[in-house]
Design goal:
Elements lengths: L10 H13 L11 H8 L8 H12 L15 H4 L10 E5 L2 H9 L3 H11 L7 E5 L2 H10 L6 E5 L9 H11 L5 E5 L2 H7 L14 H5 L3 H4 L20 E5 L5 H20 L5 E5 L3 H21 L7 H9 L3 E5 L2 H11 L3 E7 L2 E3 L2 E3 L2 H12 L5 E5 L6 H8 L3 E4 L5 H12 L5 E4 L6 E5 L2 H8 L4 H9 L2 H8 L3 H9 L15 H19 L15 E4 L5 H17 L1 H4 L10 E4 L1 H10 L3 H6 L3 H9 L5 H13 L4 E7 L16 E3 L6 H18 L3 H9 L9 E7 L3 E3 L2 E3 L2 E6 L15 E6 L7
Parallel strand pairs: 1-2, 1-3, 3-4, 4-5, 6-7, 6-8, 8-11, 11-12, 15-16
Antiparallel strand pairs: 9-10, 13-14, 16-19, 17-18, 17-19, 20-21, 22-23
Helix pairs in contact: 3-23, 7-8, 12-13, 13-18, 15-16, 19-23, 20-23, 21-22, 28-30, 29-30
Length: 762
């Protein structure tokens, strides 16, 4: 009775009420993120005013401290101070690899161009400048000349110099600048286990990276070796900067490496402004080398989807710079430390079931960590993945603590990861459903669509999505921090009960509409119109991504033709590299995603089943438009050729695995020829999932799910002979003869020639 607080504001009464309701199981999904939020959610229901007036009061309450005096939220200053985000960047990269490997990386998807495009289209600052040297000695000399000139080094594990190997090179760099991140890129898993002693036979790594990023780096730049007193580790902090990766044919791995380093560098500062993070706990090098490009691709796509919103240029720049971060951890202690620092900013957790804990591999470490996180954030999306089957003890334990589970051995693993991001973490459209019947009521992809749909939803749907915190999750994924925080701080039905004790979903609906409209009005301004097109050259490229193995080879041949002027080198001999029109792997990704073919194709039991589902699918409309334009000028016979990521790879060529189709291109109308070409492209795509291709992928340690297909269209070389078209000779020539006869040497080379199209010699 002596308490000076009002009944609804008293923290003692609020705490007692909270304990009572929890004991009765009436508070599902509440997150324990501070006493103020708990009091707000559990306080005695107050008399509600008109919802529009309540919205005004809500915005005022959200901007005040406990003493009632207004304060300026850090996130509210972001529009004027967005330059503070991502302040530490990877802008200068030193690439250490041989001349051949350099050409592979530079031309497979145009590494520099790909990085440039991703940075430019994300509205970020200038992309990294990549400088290449061919030996560790040359790289070390560049670092010694200016220890702070580079932000990151990427070196191939097989790069050997005259006086030092990769391990000696890394140690020498750390002596010069222990704060310099180093990415060790292996072209095969065997290279990792042979060279990096921290990696076991299962490609697991145990490295604690937290000190390097979370503490000041002044001492580190001076060369001091620090010790983590809390973890009891005696390892050099600089070891945390040496990150191994496995090259699996996806050039986006480079961008993922840059962004992974940037995200850890900027996490402490940017989290203060409300920027969210995805926590990835994985100690298997091959898997996180696949996960990181997949995660960053989805984040980039989410950023792209925001371009349809109407907002000022500064607001748009803010959205681009405040995308969620990906924080990679490789052991229990590191993950627990990162979560303790950024728990309020973690938007989702993807964790392996087993990884090091207290220096030893613990097969249930991920489940224990998921349980710890969910006890603090019950509504947080958590995905546990393991090599164990879905009915295993590990899977059951993960589900018991409230996490989702997926098996690493299923062929659609990456699709499951993407589905978790789009559905559970709300990076895709927000799908509404009726809270009583469960029936779907439509989906929205923008705030404008949300306002229109939310107004007409039945109250059962409004209540359902409020209880599940779907709106706050969706706005967090879209970097709408202030709005998401206000929605997350509210509690339905506790905050929406009238004096008669009735739940008022209509109040909730009006409050959401009022808050969202006010936020929308603040953003509404300006227009955007961005469009790009490729010029007509020797290789015409449609889409981003890789050109594939054959495409890379043709780029190489064109560069040789230009470098040595092959067309005029021998006047009596015409040497010409065919012109090519290439659909890059991004077109393949869109085709598979738009038609939802990934899982059905991986589960098909016959090649005919695969071909039938691809024949029934449709190419993206813009691709069809470009194919029509191509055929308007191309009336000669065409070769439609496969050019996959894995194709023509060193030691794993995939030769003869995929489809190539010859088209006469003589149908009576343009539309008929377009239908034929479209069918041929789809059949080449289908060959990526044929039984032989999937078996070959598994036999070479690759995942069929990770394969991507580019398609090359070239004019067939030859002449008309009566009713037929063919060249006089065709075949294959090699500068090295791998099977020399007794009287020949390998350097003599060899050639296999056949009459006409030369199928027998390929």
């Amino acid at each position: 009775g002596d308490c000076p607080c009002l009944p609804g504001d008293c923290p003692v009464i609020a705490a007692m009420r909270s304990a009572l309701l929890r004991s009765r199981g009436l508070l599902p999904g509440l997150a324990s993120s501070g006493a103020s939020r708990l009091r707000s959610a559990m306080a005695t229901p107050k008399l509600r005013l008109e919802p529009q007036l309540e919205a005004v009061l809500s915005r005022f309450r959200a901007s005040t401290k406990g003493d009632g005096r207004p304060k300026e939220e850090v996130s509210s200053r972001l529009v004027e101070e967005f330059e503070r985000l991502q302040s530490r960047k990877v802008q200068r990269v030193l690439l250490v690899c041989s001349d051949y490997d350099s050409y592979t990386f530079e031309q497979d998807g145009l590494l520099t161009e790909l990085v440039d495009e991703e940075y430019a289209e994300s509205g970020l600052t200038k992309p990294p400048t990549i400088e290449r040297v061919s030996t560790p000695e040359a790289a070390l000399a560049r670092v010694r000349a200016d220890p702070t000139n580079f932000d990151m080094i990427i070196t191939l594990l097989r790069s050997e110099g005259r006086t030092m190997n990769t391990g000696e090179f890394v140690s020498s760099v750390q002596q010069v600048n222990p704060a310099l991140p180093i990415g060790l890129l292996a072209l095969s898993p065997s290279e990792l286990t042979a060279i990096d002693s921290r990696i076991d036979r299962n490609l697991r790594i145990n490295v604690n990276k937290r000190l390097m990023w979370e503490t000041g780096d002044a001492a580190l730049k001076a060369g001091t070796a620090a010790v983590d007193s809390r973890a009891g580790s005696s390892a050099r902090v600089a070891d945390a900067w040496v990150w191994p990766f496995v090259w699996q044919g996806n050039v986006s791995l480079f961008t993922a490496m840059f962004k992974a380093v940037e995200d850890r560098l900027n996490a402490a500062n940017d989290s203060e402004y409300g920027v969210q993070s995805i926590l990835l706990v994985e100690d298997n090098v091959k898997f996180y080398s696949s996960y990181l490009p997949t995660l960053y691709l989805e984040l980039w796509k989410q950023n792209q989807s925001l371009r349809g919103e109407t907002m000022t240029l500064r607001e748009r720049m803010l959205r681009m710079k405040s995308r969620p971060k990906v924080l990679l951890c490789t052991n229990f202690e590191e993950a627990a430390d990162i979560y303790s620092r950024y728990s309020d900013n973690i938007i989702g957790l993807i964790t392996d079931a087993g990884f090091p804990r207290d220096g030893e591999h613990d097969p249930f470490a991920g489940v224990s960590f998921a349980e710890h996180v969910l006890s603090d954030r019950p509504a947080l999306p958590v995905l546990v993945q393991s090599a164990a089957p879905p009915d295993s003890e590990i899977a059951q334990a993960a589900r018991r603590v409230g996490a989702k589970f997926t098996s690493k051995n299923q062929p659609s693993l990456l699709s499951e990861i993407r589905h978790f991001l789009t559905e559970d973490m709300m990076f895709g459209p927000l799908t509404f459903q009726d809270g009583l019947t469960g029936s779907e009521l439509g989906s929205v992809s923008s705030v404008t669509e949300l306002l229109s749909t939310w107004q007409s939803l039945p109250e059962s749907a409004v209540a359902f999505h409020a209880r599940e915190c779907h709106l706050s999750k969706w706005f967090l994924a879209r970097a709408e921090f202030s709005l998401a925080r206000r929605f997350r701080a509210s509690n339905y039905p506790t905050d929406f009960i009238d004096p008669e004790g009735r739940e008022r979903a209509d109040w909730l609906r009006n409050w959401i509409l009022s808050e969202t409209r006010a936020h929308r009005n603040k953003l509404a301004s300006g227009v955007e119109n961005v469009h790009s097109a490729d010029a007509s050259t020797t290789i015409v490229r449609l889409g981003k991504g890789s050109l594939g193995g054959k495409g890379r080879g043709f780029r190489f041949l064109h560069s040789i033709e230009d470098k040595y002027s092959l067309s005029t080198l021998l006047p009596e001999l015409e040497m010409v590299v065919p012109r090519s029109f290439i659909l890059a792997t991004e077109v393949f990704d869109r085709f598979i995603e738009d038609n939802k073919l990934m899982v059905p194709a991986l589960n098909a039991t016959t090649n005919e089943e695969v071909r039938e589902m691809f024949a029934a699918a449709t190419l993206p409309q813009d691709v069809t438009v470009e194919l029509r334009r191509y055929l308007e000028a191309q009336t000669s016979p065409l070769a439609v050729r496969s050019s996959s990521l894995f194709e023509d790879a060193f030691l794993q060529p995939f030769a003869g695995i995929y489809e190539s189709i010859m088209l006469p291109n003589t149908a009576g109308s343009l539309e008929a020829r377009l239908d034929e070409l479209s069918w041929a492209v789809r059949m080449v795509y289908a060959s990526a999932y044929c039984l032989e291709a999937r078996a070959y992928s598994e036999g070479t340690g690759n995942r069929a799910e990770e394969e991507k297909m580019a398609v090359i269209m070239q004019e067939v070389v030859g002449d008309v002979h009566g009713d037929h078209f063919y060249p006089s000779l065709a075949g294959v020539a090699n500068s090295i003869d791998f099977y020399p006869r007794p009287h020949t040497q390998p350097e003599d080379g060899c050639a296999q020639l056949r009459l006409r199209l030369g199928f027998g010699g390929v």
